[in-house]
Design a protein that fits this description.
Elements (H helix, E strand, L loop, with lengths): L12 E6 L4 H13 L7 E4 L4 E4 L6 H9 L4 E4 L14 H28 L2 H22 L5 H31 L6 H19 L10 H30 L3 H30 L1
Antiparallel strand pairs: 1-3, 1-4, 2-3
Helix pairs in contact: 1-2, 3-4, 3-6, 4-5, 4-7, 4-8, 5-8, 6-7, 7-8
Subcellular location: Membrane
InterPro entries: Cation_efflux, Cation_efflux_TM, Cation_efflux_TMD_sf, CDF/SLC30A, HMA_dom, HMA_dom_sf
GO molecular function, one term: metal ion binding
């Protein structure tokens, strides 16, 4: 495929992207490449594998790279066909940090789900699914260490489908609760939400030293950090339930968590399919 500036036929140039974690980041990076003159069909950023693929001439790369690096993300060129695990996964301390995240997420996910049923809170149930989903996805990521790009894309596809099913489950359950409203027990809801916040902070601590590592390291760190913010939202919702004596703050937070599930699911599945086609 030819580039607008050189008209040369080129093989793909691939780079790992450090620091991206969502569809917004993908759009920002692709926009930066286009600002340097790369056509839309000559740049692809995968949210599933954190790899950018450019079809440009080699002598055009410095100009494009300058535009890419202005976004603040890191870009590490992949030499040859080695697009398997990121180098950071070789760090034993990072593996241990991921195992801690898996155990904490899966363990408290079960506890918080029980709390959701005891308190009648949809937001707690949705947050519990978030814990279980994160734990399962991180576990799958551990299994995928060292896999080829094709198998990592297949792993991402499974993650995306799993997140989508969780999101649809939360939406269905919350819609049923809208039609059969009952005010949650605010005290229990707040206690379990605070417990979730503490567990997420404990999960973040082992990842602190890795927050500026490769793309997947930083993604796990960002997911854990964002989960802590989400837990705080559930705590606020519990306070509003107690204040207004209404179930709506709980339901609104549950719908918000479901929306995040579905958006992440769509992005991961889209990129995984594109990687598999390629």
């Amino acid at each position: 495929m030819s580039t607008p500036e050189t008209g040369a036929q080129t093989a793909p140039i691939r780079m790992r992207v450090q620091g991206m974690d969502c569809a917004k980041d993908v759009a920002e990076i692709e926009r930066a490449a286009r600002s340097a003159g790369v056509s839309a069909e000559d740049v692809k950023v995968s949210a599933a594998t954190h790899i950018i693929t450019l079809r440009i001439a080699e002598n055009y790369l410095p100009k494009v790279r300058l535009a890419l690096e202005s976004t603040g993300y890191g870009f590490e060129r992949i030499e040859g066909d080695d697009v398997s695990a990121d180098p950071g996964y070789k760090d034993p301390s990072y593996r241990w940090a991921l195992w801690i995240v898996v155990v904490l997420n899966l363990g408290y996910g079960v506890v918080e789900m029980a709390g959701g049923f005891l308190s009648g809170s949809q937001a707690l149930k949705a947050d519990a699914l978030d814990f279980l989903g994160d734990g399962a996805i991180t576990f799958l990521g551990l299994l995928a260490i060292g896999w080829s790009l094709t198998w990592r894309a297949r792993s991402a596809m499974i993650q995306g489908l799993f997140l989508g099913l969780l999101g649809l489950g939360v939406v269905a359950s919350t819609l049923w609760r809208v039609l059969n409203q009952a005010t949650p027990e605010a005290g229990l809801m707040s206690a379990f939400a605070m417990g979730a916040l503490i567990v997420n902070i404990l999960a973040v601590l082992p990842l602190l030293k890795h927050r500026k590592g490769d793309a997947n390291m930083r993604a796990v760190w960002l997911f854990s950090r964002n989960d802590a913010i989400g837990n705080f939202a559930v705590v606020v919702a519990a306070g509003l339930v107690a204040w207004f004596g209404s179930a709506w703050p709980d339901l609104i937070v549950a719908f918000g968590i479901a929306a995040l599930f579905l958006h992440s699911s769509w992005t991961i599945i889209r990129d995984a399919r594109a990687d598999l086609r390629e």
